[in-house]
From TrEMBL:
Alphabetized GO MF terms: ATP binding; L-serine ammonia-lyase activity; magnesium ion binding; pyridoxal phosphate binding; serine racemase activity; threonine racemase activity
Keyword Membrane applies: no
Residue stretches making up the Tryptophan synthase beta chain-like PALP domain: 16-304
Protein name from the UniProt record: Serine/threonine dehydratase
Family under the similarity heading: Belongs to the serine/threonine dehydratase family.
GO annotation (BP), single: D-serine biosynthetic process
């Protein structure tokens, strides 16, 4: 399997420049003191559509041929990828057909419609999503853009950490959450190309720990019935991303929901920024394993900020 090269990732960054924010790196002296290391938070919660997904969707859409663009794009998603693809298609002036389960949050449907995406509802199960998508693709001729297990998407997500490395900080460790693995896979590729000695470590919820179990077993183990507050990480690890992770990721650390909520609260209280639960997983993993990171310079990707403020998990 041929992974995207550093040149591919740099080209993707150039390609998507007009469609993304170069998000800031923020620090918190209070969190550094608690953690015992120096943390640089890459704030993709400030990204277009509120998540890093804007990068991969934009790259995939921009790489389409004129003929493919004429027929538009399609995907199935109930989360940030749905909004990201609808927005990227809107900017490109092409149609986007988004298959969403009937029980998808209204706020997510509203976002997709707001970006001009056409929603096709289906029953809330994977088979219904896939068969409905297939029917849409056959009817429209649209190109299917998967949310994470797709080289053009991984290439786009890899641009996030590329921006971090442009800051000339000698990171000892880079951390990201892992769900489908597009962000982690891209982060690992860029980091190991630029600084092979830097550790790449993922955080994963205990209730959706297929990446951790797959990493330990050295074979892909699909997730069955995941349950975690980190709704952005409920999906199973992709095959391409598993291959990248096995080659380039140093470790995957598990945290429970109580630890995720505590880390999320810490960021709200100390940094005064909005993040979603999935975002807090790497910090939770660091705080649980502080001795591993003592005195290090650690980059943490805050993956997104799309959270229902009426349902914050704090007591």
């Amino acid at each position: 399997m041929k992974f995207p090269s550093l040149a591919d990732i740099q080209a993707a960054h150039e390609r998507i420049q007009p469609f993304i924010h170069n998000t800031p790196l923020l620090k918190s002296e209070a969190i550094n003191e608690i953690a015992g290391c120096e943390i640089f938070f890459k704030c993709e919660n400030f990204q277009k559509v509120g998540a890093f997904k804007a990068r991969g969707a934009a790259n995939a859409v921009m790489k389409l041929t004129p003929e493919q663009k004429a027929h538009g794009v399609a995907t199935h998603s109930s989360g940030n990828h749905a909004a990201a693809l609808a927005r990227a298609a809107s900017v490109a002036g092409i149609p986007a057909y988004i298959v969403m389960p009937s029980n998808a949050p209204e706020i997510k449907k509203k976002a997709v419609k707001g970006y001009g995406g056409e929603i096709i509802e289906c029953e809330p199960n994977l088979m219904a999503r896939e068969t409905t998508l297939q029917a849409v693709v056959e009817k429209t001729g649209a190109t299917f853009i998967p949310p994470y297990d797709y080289f053009d998407v991984i290439e786009g997500q890899a641009t996030c950490v590329l921006e971090m490395w442009k800051e000339d900080i000698p990171f000892d460790t880079i951390m990201a959450p892992v769900g489908g693995g597009g962000l982690l896979g891209g982060t690992a590729l860029t980091t190991k190309y630029i600084s092979p000695q830097t550790k790449v470590i993922a955080g994963e919820p205990a209730g959706a720990d297929d990446a951790y179990r797959s990493f330990q077993a050295k074979e892909l183990i699909p997730m069955v019935s995941p349950k975690t507050i980190s709704d952005g990480l409920l999906t199973s690890l992709g095959k391409i991303n598993f291959a990248i992770i096995m080659e380039y990721v140093d470790d995957i650390l598990i945290v429970d929901d109580a630890e995720i909520i505590e880390a999320m609260r810490l960021i709200y209280e100390r940094m005064k920024i909005v993040i979603e639960p999935s975002c807090a997983v790497p910090l939770a993993a660091l705080l649980k394993n502080k001795a591993r990171f003592t005195g290090q310079k650690v980059g943490i990707i805050l993956s997104g900020g799309n959270v229902d403020l009426a349902k914050l998990p704090f007591k």
